[in-house]
Automatic annotation (TrEMBL):
It is a multi-pass membrane protein. This is Ionotropic glutamate receptor C-terminal domain-containing protein. It comes from Cardiocondyla obscurior. The keyword Magnesium does not apply. It is found in: Cell membrane. The chain crosses the membrane at residues 51-77, 234-254. The keyword RNA-binding does not apply. It comes from the Eukaryota. One of its GO terms (cellular component) is plasma membrane.
Length: 311
């Protein structure tokens, strides 16, 4: 789509009052050559067309880099294929048991949960005698047994990530855990504590404490994490390409306006020059006609004079 649109745009930019299929085909081949990392046989002299080709070269480099990175990551990284990716799929599959920490908040979820999917999921819970007392025991059971899931939070997983002996994957449950301090009803310190907690969160103090006391437990030696590249990450590149196209269109409009104004001025000058030339020729012809008329009148007067008298 980009190649066809750009080819048509270049054809209209190069065409001066006429449209040619041959010119469209040449531009189509040139654009294809740019995206195939080929050069142009002749670089244009017009500034708008130069900007368009520059934008095409930049976009081709970006597309080639993205395609190469995607292909290399697809060939080099092994992405596990899960039999399910949601809680609904997990419940529908029914072949995986799951465990939670004994006497934890996750263990008491069925007593206060109203979600039907969550309640059906707890039908697959292991017996209480097989539930772990610590996080390390839970992940150890996951690595030793097949078709077993561990229901816990991501924070706990990150806290002991270096102790896990196998590769684990997760599915998003959409559940958010909150921590709270229990105070008596009507406690005068409630608003004071809430105010300062909110202030620490807005000022970044909570994130700093989290990175200082929680992340230091993680062992990043030999471990690399790759984030997902979304649209916001490539916004600067797309902005550069879009801005160059807009500048090219503006320069094209200015150049077209100047071209029309210049042609109109030239046409006016040519019309005035032609009018002056025609007027001069007309004056010369009229002057010559007047001279010829004067000569004819003199000749007639001379011919009508009497030569002499006869006796």
């Amino acid at each position: 789509m980009i190649i066809i649109t750009t080819s048509i745009l270049l054809t209209f930019m190069k065409a001066k009052g006429y449209f040619s299929l041959r010119l469209l085909f040449d531009n189509y081949i040139s654009v294809w050559g740019i995206y195939c990392q080929q050069g142009l046989p002749e670089f244009p002299k017009e500034s708008p067309i130069r900007l368009v080709f520059l934008s095409l070269y930049i976009s081709s480099i970006i597309i080639l880099a993205v395609y190469s990175a995607s292909l290399i990551s697809y060939l080099a990284l092994s992405t596990p294929r899960l039999p399910f990716s949601t809680l609904e799929g997990y419940v529908k599959d029914g072949t995986y048991k799951f465990i939670v920490m004994r006497n934890s908040a996750e263990y008491d979820v069925p007593s206060r949960a109203k979600d039907a999917i969550l309640l059906k999921m707890y039908d697959l819970l292991e017996k209480k005698a097989f539930l772990p007392h610590r996080l390390s025991e839970g992940f150890k059971q996951m690595c030793e047994k097949s078709n077993l899931a561990f229901y816990t939070t991501e924070v706990f997983h990150q806290a002991i990530n270096f102790q896990i002996k196998c590769n684990v994957v997760y599915i998003d449950t959409g559940r958010i855990d909150n921590l709270a301090m229990t105070l008596t009803k009507g406690n005068p310190y409630t608003s004071f504590i809430n105010y300062h907690l909110r202030r620490f969160q807005l000022n970044g103090v909570m994130g700093k404490l989290k990175n200082k006391y929680l992340s230091k437990k993680l062992d990043f030696s030999g471990y690399m994490s790759y984030g997902v590249v979304d649209l916001s990450d490539i916004t600067p590149s797309l902005t550069m390409v879009g801005a160059s196209m807009i500048v090219a269109l503006l320069v094209l409009i200015i150049e077209k306006g100047y071209y029309l104004y210049n042609n109109r001025s030239k046409n006016n000058k040519l019309a005035i020059k032609k009018f002056n030339y025609n007027l001069g020729v007309r004056n010369q012809l009229q002057k010559r006609n007047n001279q010829n008329l004067t000569i004819n009148i003199n000749q007639k007067l001379y011919n009508t004079r009497p030569i002499g008298y006869w006796p």
